[in-house]
Amino acid sequence: MSRKVKVIGAGSIGNHLSNAARRMGWSVVLSDADAAALERTRTQIYPSRYGAWDESITLCQAKDAPVGGFDMICIGTPPDVHIPLALAAVREKPALVLVEKPLCPPDCAGMQELAEEAARLGVKVCVGYDHVVAKSVAHIESLITSQAVGEVVTLDVEFREHWGGIFKAHPWLSGPWETYLGYWKRGGGSGGEHSHAANLWQHFARVAGKAPVSTVSALVEFKKEREAEYDEIFSLHVRCTDGFYGRIIQDVVTQPTRKWARIQGTRGAIEWHANQGAKGDVVLVLGTDGTVQESSFPKTRPDDFIREMEHLDAVISGTVSDSQIGLDKGMATMRLVAAGYESGRSGDCVKLV
Description:
By secondary structure, this protein is of the alpha/beta class. 34% of the residues lie in helices and 28% in strands. The strands form two sheets. Strands 14-13-12-11-7-10-9-8-15 form a nine-stranded mixed beta sheet. A six-stranded parallel beta sheet has the order 3-2-1-4-5-6, with helices on both faces. A hairpin with a 4-residue loop joins strand 13 (281-287) and strand 14 (292-297). It is globular, with a radius of gyration of 20 Å.
């Protein structure tokens, strides 16, 4: 089915989302408050990534963007304006609003209002944690539910990546001080930018039937650089109400990159290794007898967003009724990140429930 999509924000994510929607055969309006960002999209970002500019994409400044009549509205702006833009998008009454991760800054202001307004108007909202809808993660879900390594006893997830790659993808930025990335209170830093790890930890724990996180003990290393203040390392130890526990680490200093998860069971372990070159994502099943079973899931970076768009299409059509990237999950991740910052700044263990 052809759908009409409005993408707000012509940065890196906005380009990925626009391309994925076009690959689905959908019509796209891409808007941004900055005319220079739209021109950069048309002449630099989009053609350099996907081979050529797609003339069927309608570019417009935010003040001129059409209102109403869309099946999906995607918000790919800095996190500190996500909530007001999402509220406005929900009031246009599309079938679905996608908000890029993180949902909001760690003060969580307006988060509950968004949930209530979306429920009142019957609009579905998702948050762009695309890794949890990846084919490799679906494979791990099946391994967990079939108890391929027995009962899950602990869980570790790491997203450790020097953000030089981010700035390479945004060559018009000279450093973190020129973007929200350099300001943890705006949703940047390792706690916000790499919150995929926190989200993925919560996802695997849910699949394993574990209770929500109840307490967080964090080590957060802050750094000041020019006007910026961000966290280089965001390290959490978490425990659930049922006693299940694990570890989450996010940083912006590790190179080469390590995006990894380990699900330890009573009869072995499952490991997830993201973006392993031509192999794509790799899943290992490690037996206590030393056996290793490897499954590879080849992909390109645009494939991540096409897979996400396919999932969102299924959410709109009703094929998926409880989305892995639904607003409730994005809110839970934001509460966990906020608790991590609170613990990291105070040095105390923080209770969530």
